[in-house]
From TrEMBL:
Gene3D superfamilies: NAD(P)-binding Rossmann-like Domain. The keyword Transport does not apply. Keywords: Oxidoreductase. GO terms for molecular function: oxidoreductase activity. This is 3-oxoacyl-ACP reductase. Coiled coil: none annotated. Belongs to the short-chain dehydrogenases/reductases (SDR) family.
């Protein structure tokens, strides 16, 4: 166990942006604790895979405990896991509500709370949010995303102020539409039109933003928009 190497915990790490974040932090020399519900074991000894559902009480603490037991410390948490279900508000079901709030809110709460108990000076928490919080779109009805991610934006600022005295930074990255396997290629042109730049974001755009915040020691309480101008308007 090398307790001198910095350690990052990444949720939703099995594919898409999460997998990109694992690779990005490894390039920085971090060891990684990678979580998702169905993640498989890694061939990289510096990546510990923890398969677990963060919407379930107690799982967040178990992930942080696993990080400390394996690597001796936690320096950064990236709350990347999230559920997005676009629907007209009255079409949402109780099951939709439970699924979205379970991952987006309960997962954030449990992982972040456990991490803040062990993070020291120089610690960092980053949460992935959405620009739909700032720029709603009638073509993408997503009130439950705004309910949860808007709350996470507010919590980001509150925690940044609360923990600044301990030398811990707290930030968020508000994304536009990113080109991941969840979007059918037939929808790409329409989705690209949701922002002034007229293209989808790429996984590297999201990863670069998180890694910028990781290394920006004087930035805290920031909601960094990476959305092709979506939050600015149309």
């Amino acid at each position: 166990m090398d307790t001198a190497t910095r350690v990052v915990v990444i949720t939703g790490a099995s594919q898409g942006i999460g997998a990109g974040l694992v690779a990005g932090y490894r390039r920085l020399g971090y060891t990684v604790v990678a979580n998702s519900r169905s993640i498989g074991e890694s061939d990289d000894p510096s990546v510990l895979a923890v398969a677990a559902d963060i919407s379930r009480p107690g799982v967040g603490e178990r992930i942080i405990d696993a990080a400390v037991q394996r690597f001796g410390r936690v320096d950064t948490v990236v709350n990347n896991a999230g559920i997005f279900i676009p629907k007209p508000f009255t079409d949402y079901t109780d099951a939709d509500y439970d699924a979205i709030t379970g991952v987006n809110l309960r997962g954030f709460f449990d992982v972040t709370r456990a991490a803040l108990r062990v993070l020291g000076p120089g610690g960092h928490i980053v949460t992935i949010s959405t620009s739909l919080v700032d720029q709603a779109n009638s073509h993408v009805p997503s009130a439950l995303a705004s309910l949860t991610k808007g709350g996470l934006n507010a919590a980001t600022k509150a925690l940044a102020v609360e923990y600044a005295g301990r030398g811990i930074r707290v930030n968020a990255v508000a994304l536009g539409v990113v080109n991941t396997p969840m979007h059918d290629p037939s929808t790409h042109d329409a989705l690209a039109g949701l922002n002034p730049m007229g293209r989808l974001g790429e996984i590297d755009d999201a990863v670069d933003a998180v890694l910028y915040l990781e290394q920006a020691g004087f930035v805290t309480g920031e909601i960094l928009h990476v959305d092709g101008g979506q939050s600015a308007g149309h």
